[in-house]
Each structure stands twice: as C-alpha cells, then as structure tokens.
From TrEMBL:
Protein name: Growth hormone-regulated TBC protein 1
One Pfam family linked to the record: RabGAP-TBC
GO molecular-function term, one example from the UniProt record: small GTPase binding
Top-level taxonomic group: Eukaryota
Taxonomic source organism: Jaculus jaculus
Start and end residues of each Rab-GAP TBC domain: 14-179
Length: 257
C-alpha cells in the first residue's frame, strides 16, 4: 500500500530532514499533480474513470520518491518513467525501487534541478555524431541547431511515448542490465539508419520534423531487428570514450554557468 511504501521510504532515508522534505514536497506536489493528467492520456488505465485508476498509484510512487530523494524531488519526465514502470510491474513498491535505481544510480543528475547529467549526455551524443556521422553534425552546425531541441525528449523520457512499447521494453532491459550506454546506441542507430533522409533537410523546422519521423515506422517496430542493429550500427562505443566525453562536456557546461 502507499502508506506502507511511504513508511518504508522514511525509514530508509532516516528522519532528520523529514520536516524539510515535507515542506519542499508541497511545491513538488503542485508540479506533478499537473503532470498526472498528461501521463499516457490515451491509456485507459490512467484515466480518472478507470477502476483502479493508475493515476493514484503514479501519485503515490512520485510522492514517495520526492520524500526519499528531496535533492531531486520531482522533475518533469519522471511521470512517464514511473508510469511506464507501473504498467510493466503492476506494483507500487517495485516501481518505486526501479525508479530509484534509474534516477539515483543509472542516470545520476538526469532529473536533478539543474539536469546537468541530462545536458551533459546530450552534448556527448553531439560529439559522438561529430565523430561517427560528420555529415549530420555539419548539417546541425550549418543551421545552428541545438541538439537539445531534437533529442531532449529521447533522454528525459528514455524513449517512452517516442518508440513503440515493445521496443522500449527491450531497450529498458539493456538499460537496467548494462547501464546508460544503451541510450547512445539507440540514438546513434536512429540517426545513422536515417542519415540520407535527415540530410535532405533544408531548414531548422525541417530538421526537427525529420527527427520526429525517424522514431516511427517499420524500422523501430521490428524490435528484434532493431535491437540487433543498435549493437552493430554505431560501431565501437567504449565506456572509456563515453566517460572521457562526459568529463569534457560536463566541464564545458559548468564553465558556461
């Protein structure tokens, strides 16, 4: 139950900061209550008329996480992550701990107030495209397109509500087993597979539209083939390279203020 989950969370976190956490959570509640109706609006189980209504379960998980990790609290995008976990596990408690693994361990600083981890990884993707797909990088640079405009939802939502459900499930299996490198593999594969199509773009709106289109169609629907492609198409992608790029990109972002 949500009461049991909340009690467990407060015990796990220790209670000295509980009063402060509760105060900060009021602000958090206002934000994520607004997001509840925007979470999977086409899914009948998330509608207010559903019985049971998963909006309540989502509320409980997000509130528990805000209490558990007040440094993060709640950030837009977490509603899709938590909602997806609830659909998969059908358990508040399992969803909470999987959310904690993602936000706290696998993707640190993605959902913190400054979102430094997220911004860093978007810049890392830009560098990887520059290394592996220079023609696409040149197109972006030529039009002055910021990568965040194109891929921020890929990173924030971890491809939920972007790629087909079955494909996202397979990607998440890899995410929990192998860590965040899989996000770069998926992004690079989408871009490489559709490179010729992207290079037809002649304006910023055109580029944005093409990046939306490459997440649809048979290529991403055939999840078995797609998963094989993400391990072959991007070529070598070592954690050493990613760690080095992260350090450089993070330092550059911090220097910008």
């Amino acid at each position: 139950s949500s009461g049991k989950l909340r009690a467990q969370v407060m015990r796990a976190g220790g209670n000295p900061a509980a009063a402060k956490a509760d105060t900060e959570t009021v602000v958090t509640l206002v934000t994520f209550c607004a997001d509840l109706n925007r979470t999977f609006p086409d899914n009948v189980r998330f509608r207010k008329t559903a019985e049971p209504c998963l909006q309540r379960t989502l509320y409980n998980v997000l509130l528990a996480y805000a209490l558990h990790n007040p440094g993060v609290g709640y950030c837009q995008g977490m509603n899709f992550i938590a909602g997806y976990l609830i659909l998969i596990t059908k358990s508040e408690e399992e969803s909470f701990w999987l959310l904690d693994a993602l936000v706290g361990r696998i993707l640190p600083d993605y959902y913190s107030p400054a979102m430094l981890g997220l911004k860093t990884d978007q810049e890392v993707l830009a560098e990887l495209v520059r290394m592996k797909l220079p023609a696409v990088a040149a197109l972006m640079d030529g039009h002055g397109v910021l990568w965040t405009l194109l891929v921020s939802r890929w990173f924030i939502c971890l491809f939920v509500d972007i790629l087909p459900v079955e494909t996202v499930l397979r990607i998440w299996d890899c995410l929990f087993n192998e860590g965040s490198k899989i996000i770069f593999r998926v992004a690079l594969t989408l871009i490489k597979q559709h490179q010729a199509f992207i290079l037809e773009a002649s304006s910023i709106p055109d580029i944005c539209d093409k990046f939306k289109q490459i997440t649809k169609g048979d290529f991403v629907t055939e999840c078995h083939t797609f998963m094989q492609k993400i391990f072959s198409e991007p070529g070598s992608l070592s954690m050493t390279t990613i760690t080095r790029l992260r350090e450089n990109c993070r330092a550059a972002l911090l220097a910008q203020g």
